[in-house]
Amino acid sequence: MLLLILAAASAMLVYGLIAGMLGAVLPDFTRKFGLAPGQMGLMGLAQALGLIVASLAAGPMIGASSKRTALLVALSAAAAGLYMLPRARTVGQVVATLFLIDCGGGTIVEAANSLSFEMGSAMTEMAKANLLNAAFCVGGVLTPFLAANLCRRDSTRVLRVLLWTALVAIALNAANPIDGHSSGASPFALMGDQARHATFWLVSLLFFFSIAAEVGVWNWLAPFLMGRGISERSVLNIVSLGFALGLLLGRMAVVWIPSPIQPETVTLGAAVLTAAATSAMLWTRRAAATWASVFLAGLSMAPVFPNCIAITTTAFPNDATALGLGLIAGWLGMAVSSPAIAMLSGNGGGRLGRGLLLLPAASVMLAATCWLLIRLARA
User: Fold this and answer.
1) Cβ within 8 Å of residue 62, ≥6 positions away
2) Do the beta carbons of residue 47 and residue 94 sit within 8 Å?
3) 19: nearest Cα among 91, 101, 97
4) Less Cβ around it within 10 Å: N or C end of the chain?
């Protein structure tokens, strides 16, 4: 069991490193390629498309083989992309490589979280999902921290650390003795059955708004704060020791919430706090106040995505295909949010604050959706 947990956690750690990667390397890539907000949005869109493709393929892959095999394939794809990214010579090559990396990342999320079924029933689904995704947050802390303090202004060194971590995760997952079999088919095979139920659409909206908000912070916070005149090193530390650390501490705290409290209730409260914290994040000017608001945004946002997974896996136990449907909705939120933020920001990076108003807006919609889900369950 310990090796199983280490294998799943190491895979989620790699995905956390990947999720924080674009925001951490964008300053260096901007110097190298002279990126405009529209090109940054294209990179975010490439990531989202990779995640969507992975969610379409992961269910059938797991059904035909196992969760362990899917993780090995996914980690290998991510490692290949991390090797290729610092060698990219054009924006097009960067976009294509990001797509490959997130094809691996999307499969990691689905396969690693579905491994929670093999971890038994000693913990609630909410506790298991938040614990696994705490490993993701460790990666989110490390990538910008490395970029700010140990690999200053050198994205190649950051990506080299990520590559070696992925290789270690491959070794751990190869040694994991539990294959983890699950039903798995094309997500569209279940669409007809699920589409008749209002709960399916509400859970899909939860994924859509939660990922739109969280990924918006990962990808856009660094260039937004640098546009306000904060130094690159300070910005990356704010992302690492503010947002990512808040996510980590929040998810570890949720693990200890007693089982009678439902994930829907926790998610509603978190969404309301996230709307307030992301609004404050956009208006604060002083570095200390900015760090505090970013930390509170991470802390309040922490349980939302894992709880979406917990709600889904409770309704559809050991069904990687059902989880894939929810994740596809979430990655669509990412695909919509990044280009929308870029479009609202225009060609000037100084207007990113206008585009980032989508973050509190998505949080308000998340709260409304969660409220409807609770009302539906009580009806």
Assistant:
1) 69, 70, 110, 111, 114, 180, 181, 182, 184, 320
2) no
3) 101
4) C
The number of angstroms, rounded, from the C-alpha of 26 to the middle of its chain's C-alpha atoms is 17
Looking up tokens 């797991």, which residue turns up? 62
pLDDT of residue 13: 94
Per DSSP, the three-state class of 131 is helix
The whole-angstrom distance between residue 94's C-alpha and the CA centroid of its chain comes to 20
**CA distances, 25 to each of 146, 182, 232 (Å):** 11, 37, 11
Q: Is the dihedral of CA 313, 141, 270, 359 positive or negative?
A: negative
Rounded-to-integer distance, Cα 352 and Cα 247, Å: 23
pTM confidence score: 0.77
Q: Residue 206 corresponds to which tokens in the numbers above?
A: 């939860």
Residue 183 dihedral angles phi and psi, to the nearest 5°: -70, 140
Q: What integer is the mean pLDDT of 133-151?
A: 84
pLDDT tens-digit readout, 202-217: 888 999 999 999 888 8
- List the beta bridge partners of residue 183: 319
DSSP 90: S
